[in-house]
Amino acid sequence: MIPMMEFRQFSEQQPAFRVLKPWWDVFTEYLSVIMLMIGVFGCTLQVMQDKIICLPRRVASENTSELHLESNISSVLREMKGLKTDLDLQQYSFINQMCYEKALHWYAKYFPYLVLIHTVVFMVCSNFWFKFPGSSSKIEHFISMLVKCFDSPWTTRALSEVSGENPEDNENKRSSISEFNIAMSPGEGSLEKTQSLRSIPEKIVVDKASASVLDKKEGEQAKALFEKVKKFRLHVEEGDILYLMYVRQTVFKVIKFLLIIAYNSTLVNKVQNKVRCEVEIQDMTGYRQFQCNHTMAHLFSKLSYCYLCLVAMYGLTSLYTSYWLFYRSLKEYSFEYVRQETGICDIPDVKNDFAFMLHMIDQYDPLYSKRFAVFLSEVSENKLKQLNLNHDWTAEKLRQRLQTNPKNRLELQLFMLPGLPDTVFELTELQSLKLEIINNVTVSASISKLEDLQELSLYQCSLKMHTAAIAFLKENLKVLRVKFDDSREFPSWMYCLRNLEELYLTGPLSTDASKNIVLESLREMKCLKILSIKSNLTKIPQSIVDVSSHLQRFYLHNDGTKLVMVNNLKKMTNLTVLEIVRCDLERIPHAIFSLTNLQELDLKENNLRSIEEIISFQHLRKLTCLKLWYNSIMYIPEHIKKLSSLERLNFSHNKIEILPSHLFLCNKLRYLDLSNNDIRFIPPEVGVLQSLQYFSVTCNKIENLPDELFFCKKIKTLKLGKNSLSILSPKISYLSVLIHLELKGNHFEVLPQDLGYCRALKRSGLIVEETLFETLPSDIREQMKAE
To answer: Using one digit for the tens of pLDDT, what is the confidence trace for 62-88?
Structure first.
């Protein structure tokens, strides 16, 4: 006998593949085993038993007929004797073989081999998609992930959290989802609802105490599973090779079934016990006709009918499989019932090969799909990330990162984390929280534990706020800094922060609702005093006017976009500080002249060429600081003398060539910066500035300094670097409080010994070439080096 183990290789597959074998594949597999046994049994008999037994037949003549008649009459008188053929054993064997080859019908000869071949083809066809490289790799990856997801502690934890929900809440959730489904149009609800999943009404019952415990290693494994599932889904949903291969092998089996039934039912009656044989071997045996007996005809006949029945069952099962394949939408898979059952509402529907494999899994055990669905949910993934984040960032670790910010607040800065650790809310001493590039985070009500929190900075973070968290921030937050690139990163909840005092916004804003983000009304911010906007506005938003009654400082950085309309500035009558930077202004806006409480004005990096309007600043009696730096101003008008209240004036980085003497009539000036211009001469009227403490003319073309400059005895910082000076007046000794002197980049050959009288000047405050410093007497050098 041929051992059955020899045929196992045709149907062997990994045990894990059984999850992709629905009941019909299992049933046909057993049918194939039975048919294989029939084929093997028939082949064994064919090999081991005599196939056919033949005897020669005499050809009757007329004389022999008469003698035969007479013998019949007298038969009762004579004893019957056998016919002698005079054939030996070798001749009989030869006759049997010749008649087997020539007279026996081919179906009777090859029936067991046909059964064996057809069965092996069936078995190979049924398992081909498990062996083909293009499909087997996907199947192996899928089953590997499926088993890991099924056994993952995170799956148990996620489902146990659902199982512990209030039944009334679940019922309300289900009813709301049902109403939504009823309201959907037929086109929207075309995804097939997996029937098999409806047979899982029960919750997964687990010990919630044990399910809530997930160590760091298990958390990392679950995180890796989420990534694998995500990448696998993107890869598998692109094609439908698995679906097409399964369809093709099913169609092939149906065609083969029809072929087998057709020719077997026609030829089964050819298996006969008696066979007449006529072969031209008379010269070797003396006979031409033989009567043969097919010894296995009776058994083969019964086996063939049995085989036909098995093939019929196999074929009907394949027809059912074809119906299932073609009349059900197997390239789409809906997790609707799982969403209702688990309460995880963001589980996405899938398509193509991914959907097909899930349909196949449902035929094995729908519980696999339910547990696997947990790893398709972003909500579930975010919960896991949060859990892992809490493991990585303990309260002790966060407390070590606390530092004091420039406003003397205790600050925690978190950069590029996958979420916001819950342990942050255990730092009750925290006063400032700075988050950078943290996305898809929900701030829970636990933020209310941070009773001292006053400052929040969000740089490119997309946050969602719990209602209780908004209520807490509404009452406690004083400073909010936001840097955003799109609407997802813009906190729409900020408008209700009624106790907010400082708001800093950096990102694309617009006054047009169809473009970017529109700044809505800020009227709820009753305490807002400082507003800073770094954006690309073309006009001052009307929403800012809503806080004009209490806004004291307004900073607008426009990143080079031309600011066309500034009329709304007139309404900000309480402004004390105004900064309009990089707004491509060509003239000083007239609206500024209405701000009677203005104390500081900064028009840095605009396109100002003429500032004749400066005369109107005389109405701003409180203006003490004017910064017109980084522009293209060619000259300073004489009207500058009208600004008698100025204490700080910055004209650096312009194109000024001549300093008008009227400039120095602003005798309250304490800070004057004229660096990076084309100035060649400093008028002697500079000596009028007896309050001057800071004077800079760095990077100009000055060749001489007026002696009157050294009469400004309160100067602490004097910057004369990068000019064309060759002599430093000995009157430098008059500047007894000088602590910073910059001389580097000039044409000095020697420094005056009178520098020794500047007792407050140290070596670190003297910016000069080392060789030039060495020209000073040693005692003066030692005096300066002594800190």
So the answer is: 444 444 444 454 444 444 455 666 666
